[in-house]
Amino acid sequence: MSLAIYNDLTRKREEFKPLENGKVRMYCCGPTVYDFFHIGNARPFVFFDAARRYLESLGYEVSYIQNFTDIDDKMINRANERGITVAELAEEFIAAYYEDADALGIKRATKNPRATHEIDTIISIIEKLVEKGHAYPMDGSVYFDVASDPEYGKLSKQSIDELQSGARIDVDEKKKQPLDFALWKAAKPGEPFWESPWGKGRPGWHIECSAMSTKYLGETIDIHGGGSDLIFPHHENEIAQSEGASGKPFVNYWMHNAYLLIDKEKMSKSLGNFMTVRDIRKKYNPLVLRFFLLSAQYRSPINFTAEALEQAKSALERITNCFGDLKFALENREAGGKDETLAQKLEAAKKLYTDCMDDDFNTAGAIGGIFDAVSAINVHLTEHKETDRETLTEALEFFDKVNYVFGFFAEEKEGTDPKAAEIEKLLAQRTEARKNKDWALSDKIRDELAARGITIKDTPQGTIWTKQL
Q1: DSSP 386-452
Q2: CB neighbourhood size of 78 (10 A)
Q3: In what side-by-side order are the strands of the sheet with 23-28?
Q4: How many CB atoms lie within 10 A of CB 198?
Q5: Could you tell me if 273 and 231 are in contact, meaning their C-beta atoms sit under 8 angstroms apart?
Q6: What element of type H or E holds 257?
Q7: For labelling alongside 452, which of 75, 214, 357, 400 has CA 20 to 30 A away?
Q8: Distance between CA atoms of 133 and 86, rounded to whole angstroms?
Q9: Rg of the chain taking only CA atoms, in angstroms
Q10: How much is the pTM?
Q11: What angle do CA 347, 349, 355 make, to 5 degrees?
């Protein structure tokens, strides 16, 4: 089975065929950096990171671009509220984004371009659109003429008339029709601006992504991702302006994740259910949130509750504990004969994982395969004093492959945990206490470690310790 992707442009599952053999050009919409990003934002950031990683695990070289929108109305208003410049606000929250994204195990993009650093490219594309009759200047602004594009609406599957009925014109906009959208906005007093052929101003939101995608990936790319809320108008407008300027298809595979709900309601500050990743990190290991976000198929809504996050924590601990037990067994147990049942179950688990990931990146189904492997390994380790080292080594390789894609546990390089030596020293003291039947000291050390978030398990081969999530 080869990789198939559900393409929102065609509304069909399609075999993935990249533009260039062995390489993937992938663009995902990034944050507007005026605040910490919320857990709804985190869903596309985490999912498309996992999709990118899976493509890499298949051997593709992935060029992954995720932008920062560092100029728009929200940023201008927030900067004015705080009495700082828009640039200062952007620097603060770009740094915050990286801190939270790193904590979620999100791999750094090939490049994170910023809108304000790409003004020349933006102006060049707008000039092409004006020249080709797809855009018109109006009082220092420039608007895309939706009527010039007979295919407008092909992503959202709505006609111009259907879209027009729900559109509106802001009181300060002077455009031909409501659906027309700003490519360049004339500067207002006190706003940041750049020089352009149409006067001082700043780019519209939609044109930023077209410019950054085109500059760093080319006029046609393989995959464009984002939340389903971006289908219209953002991604619809991206298609219109990109294809209007280049005359070529913009994106071959459009992918959108469904909403994240809070207790079955949309997240909203007015409802008091708005949560940032920074908030979650104060109470939970961020990898628990990553696991939760990957526990549903990306095109299905996912409902966030405190209970669901606790369940995710328990499930993730089961996986990480199995991984620790597996490594400990390979390092400390004697080799035994072939366990055919384990080998068969492991192969079935690996196949389920791969089949699900090849089926439109079905992370929920793939996690089922991972748990099948966990169950088989746990049974083997419980029922056998000697281990099938060959099959367990294959299991460890499978865990490593899975962890690259899912990021269930942080990859700790040898010698990077300064507390590990201290923990090992306490465990050695406890082992000595147990030999001397000093149960009071043994229990005291166990309790001390538990208070520090360390779980210990005694086995005939020694004591295993793991960090609680």
Answers
A1: SB-HHHHHHHHHHHHHHHHHH--S--PPTT--TTHHHHHHHHHHHHHHHHTT-HHHHHHHHHHHHHT
A2: 17
A3: 61-66, 23-28, 221-227, 251-257
A4: 20
A5: no
A6: strand 251-257
A7: 400
A8: 33
A9: 26
A10: 0.89
A11: 100
As a whole number of angstroms, the distance between CA 211 and CA 115 comes to 9
pLDDT digits (tens, 9 = 90+) for 32-55: 999 999 999 999 999 999 999 999
DSSP assignment of 37-79? -BHHHHHHHHHHHHHHHHHHHTT-EEEEEE-BB--SHHHHHHH
- For the record, the structure tokens of 311 come out as 């369940």
Going from the C-alpha of 414 to that of each of 335, 409, 465, the distances in angstroms are: 25, 15, 16
**Residue 171, Cβ density class (10 Å: 0-12 exposed, 13-18 middle, ≥19 buried):** exposed
**CA angle at 10 for the pair 406 and 231, rounded to the nearest 5°:** 65
The helix (H) or strand (E) run that includes residue 90 is helix 86-103
Q: Which residues contact 165 (CB under 8 A, 6 or more apart)?
A: none
Nearest to 302 by CA among 28, 39, 51, 50: 39
The Cβ-side half-sphere exposure at 198, using a 13 Å CA radius, reads 25
For the beta carbon of residue 450, count every other beta carbon within 10 angstroms: 12
pLDDT digits (tens, 9 = 90+) for 337-374: 999 999 999 999 999 999 999 999 999 999 999 999 99
